[in-house]
């Protein structure tokens, strides 16, 4: 399957990197004493291409969609929870709504393929907004064949590109909602990275041991039913969800625009995995917020050879982990811009 997707340039500027490292090393502190905050400051300076990085108009975007696979009992919750949670996001009652409000993150919800028709919502300053980019009211059951057609997958990718093009600022925080989408993440990890389903598949929204066993059996059927879908976009169409495909397009566009991409948990990481198989330089622009408590996420992060900022046992999704990690990005930029050097402060350096 082909799609018109953004291409990326390498942002690995050795001269800028050396200048940033010199600045960090000569702040008024013992060398390396701010630990991984120093690595984060370096990454943010590299992404934004400056020694004085500023995070402007951060955008939290939650991509929502339903999954035909959910009818097979792969989640502890019914599919109706997807649209109900979209309403909860917009009403301000969800975890990501609270955290976005707390940290001043603009919140947008995108209907990528929810099995309910939403009325258009007028944008209200300071309130969450809803974008209607529905490809269809949920995907097909991937255990019986492809979840999406190639055309549907390409449409979802294009929607992701379009959504990001319309957003202000230089930071994109990724969120998602879709009952059954931990199954999608597990399938994509298994297919694209060869990780066994036992390692990929966990409790999702709270399955018991019998439920996890049933989920694994359904996922094996999905892999077998789509055995020929091995290239990244083919696997995405066969196994993915509309919200995951829209996320892939959004990630690629944000990376092309050199935005900071703050990756949440298992499902958003699956979208980044697909995007990085299409454009490996995507990973240069990403900050991984946390290591989820969902089984499979640690393996997924290992496949991409990335280290997250937090490990709090989270497995909610929605973008909640990305929002919780946000203050660390703000602090890293402030340290780089505002912390004095030994020379400017008149403090003696180590002999």
UniProtKB/TrEMBL annotation:
The active site is at residue 318. Pathway: Nucleoside biosynthesis; alpha-ribazole biosynthesis; alpha-ribazole from 5,6-dimethylbenzimidazole: step 1/2. The keyword Transmembrane helix does not apply. Its EC number is 2.4.2.21. One of its GO terms (molecular function) is nicotinate-nucleotide-dimethylbenzimidazole phosphoribosyltransferase activity. It catalyses: 5,6-dimethylbenzimidazole + nicotinate beta-D-ribonucleotide = alpha-ribazole 5'-phosphate + nicotinate + H(+). Pfam families: DBI_PRT (PF02277). It comes from the Bacteria. Keywords: Cobalamin biosynthesis, Glycosyltransferase, Transferase. Signal peptide: none annotated. Belongs to the CobT family. This is Nicotinate-nucleotide--dimethylbenzimidazole phosphoribosyltransferase. It comes from Paenacidovorax monticola. The gene is cobT.
């Amino acid at each position: 399957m082909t799609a018109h997707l953004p291409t990326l340039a390498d942002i690995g500027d050795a001269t800028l990197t050396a200048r940033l490292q010199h600045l960090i090393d000569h702040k008024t502190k013992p060398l390396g004493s701010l630990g991984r905050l120093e690595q984060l400051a370096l990454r943010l300076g590299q992404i934004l291409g400056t020694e004085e990085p500023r995070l402007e108009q951060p955008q939290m975007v939650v991509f929502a969609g339903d999954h035909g696979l959910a009818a097979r009992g792969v989640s502890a919750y019914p599919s109706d929870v997807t649209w109900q949670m979209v309403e909860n996001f917009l009403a301000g009652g969800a975890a990501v709504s609270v955290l976005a409000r707390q940290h001043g993150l603009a919140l947008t919800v995108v209907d990528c393929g929810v099995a309910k028709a939403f009325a258009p919502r007028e944008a209200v300053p300071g309130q969450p907004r809803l974008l209607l980019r529905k490809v269809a009211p949920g995907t097909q059951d991937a255990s019986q064949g492809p979840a999406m057609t190639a055309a549907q997958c390409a449409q979802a990718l294009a929607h992701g590109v379009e959504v990001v093009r319309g957003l202000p600022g230089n930071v994109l925080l990724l969120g998602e909602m879709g009952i059954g989408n931990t199954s999608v993440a597990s399938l994509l990890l298994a297919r694209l990275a060869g990780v066994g389903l036992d390692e990929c598949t966990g409790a999702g929204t709270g399955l018991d041991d019998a439920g996890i066993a049933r989920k694994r059996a359904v996922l094996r059927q999905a892999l077998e039913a789509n055995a020929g879908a091995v290239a990244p976009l083919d696997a995405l169409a066969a196994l993915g969800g509309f919200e995951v495909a829209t996320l892939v397009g959004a990630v690629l566009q944000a990376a092309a625009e050199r935005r900071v991409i703050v990756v949440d948990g298992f499902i958003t990481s699956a979208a980044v995995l697909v995007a990085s198989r299409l454009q490996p330089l995507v990973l240069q622009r990403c900050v991984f917020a946390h290591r989820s408590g969902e089984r499979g996420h640690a393996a997924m992060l290992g496949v991409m050879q990335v280290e997250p900022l937090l490990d709090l046992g989270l497995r909610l999704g929605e973008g909640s982990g990305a929002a919780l990690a946000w203050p660390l990005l703000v602090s890293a930029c402030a340290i780089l811009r505002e912390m004095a050097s030994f020379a400017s402060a008149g403090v003696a350096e180590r002999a």
